[in-house]
Amino acid sequence: MKRAAQLFEELDATSGTNAKVDALARYFSEATDADKLWTIALLSGRRPKRPVTSTQLRQWAAEVSGIPDWLFEASYHVVGDFAETVTHIAKLEQPITQSLTEWVHYVEGLKLLTEPEKSHRVKAAWAGLANMELFVFNKIITGGFRIGVSQKIMVKGLSKATGLEEDAIAHRLMGDWSPHTTTFHDLLFAENAADQASRPYPFYLAYGLEGEEGRAAGAGLPELLPLGDPQDWQAEHKWDGIRGQLIVRGHQHYVWSRGEELVTDKYPEFQALREVLPQGTALDGEILAWKEGTPLPFAEMQKRIGRKSVGKKILADVPVVFMAYDLLENKGGRHPAKSLG
After folding, report:
1. One-character DSSP codes across 129-147
2. Helix, strand, coil % (nearest 5) of the chain?
3. pLDDT confidence of 280, banded at 50, 70, 90?
4. Contact between residue 187 and residue 178 where contact means Cβ atoms under 8 Å apart
5. Which of 196, 204, 202, 132 shows the shortest CA–CA distance to 171?
6. Residues forming a β-bridge with 287
């Protein structure tokens, strides 16, 4: 945990992209494979399911600090982050030395315990960790692992440490993987035909400008940005739907959300595309509620999003279409992002 805590402290201490990339590259060159894998998972949103409630954590934190509930709540309000608040008030009693992976398993094991057992084990962890190690533990247990590192920066750090191309790493990190079902080596280096069949591509996302252009924009001086001739730009309609990728491979189809969730079963309308699109096709686009040639309000789309199963009525009331933006793969070959919209 010490090495992971050092990494997160370095990441938290700088806003510079290059400094973050360097810190990540050093970590991915030095840490154990198990800790590397869990670090990738935590930074890409694959966190353990939260085993305790906020109310329980607040109660236990007030108890270990010896302060009244109202004072803890007031402190939390000032600090603004639960993990940081507990880090300030917890008292180190007997240091505990475990790896990041061991602490993640410790948190995962809480879900099988009774509330008194959970309380005992959480308080024991708080008493055995200090400073940034305690902060990292609290972030794991609360599920709020936001430390200012985008997946793009993490990919750059992995690339620098492993020598792999950034786009290859980004592609491998997509999809339905877990530290429980793979290893660091298999995730980045091994070929898996079954996994490749469903794997999507990284989504094309907008990022803020860096360098002189970014500083000018941040200063509120857009007139200084050398954006070039407007005729060289293309403006597209902002569709009010769900970003997704539609993939047809091996006579199967797969639908992925931008959050890297496989949502094929939620949109059975797209099954027919297996017979229409060539095998080895990957499309990036928007899933839209659409009826009688017209897009429906997003409120209608939300009726589809929150359902685990889709019945005949909802299929009739809120049908969907796939508005394709880019062709990412054509007949099994990667395509240079050809715009379709």
Report:
1. --HHHHHHHHHHHHT---S
2. 50, 15, 35
3. very high
4. no
5. 202
6. 242, 322
CATH of the domain at 306: 3.30.470.30
Determine the Cα–Cα distance for residues 72 and 84; give it in Å rounded to an integer.
12
Distance between CA atoms of 333 and 170, rounded to whole angstroms? Answer: 17
Name the residue among 163, 164, 188 with its Cα closest to residue 174. 188
* Res 341: pLDDT: 39
Show the tokens assigned to 19: 């400094």
Spatial separation of the C-alpha atoms in residues 141 and 250, rounded to whole Å: 40
**Residue, of 21 and 50, whose pLDDT is higher:** 21
The pair of three-digit structure tokens given for residue 92, joined into one six-digit string: 């180190």
Last residue of a domain, one of 111, 142, 173: 142
Q: What is the mean pLDDT of residues 214-239?
A: 66
Give me the pLDDT at residue 77, please.
Answer: 87
- What is the number of helices (H) and of strands (E) in the chain? 16, 6
On whether residue 225 sits in a domain, the answer given is no
Q: What is the pLDDT of residues 159-187, one digit of tens each?
A: 999 999 887 788 788 767 889 989 999 99
Per the domain annotation, does 193 fall within a domain? no
pLDDT at 36 over 60: yes
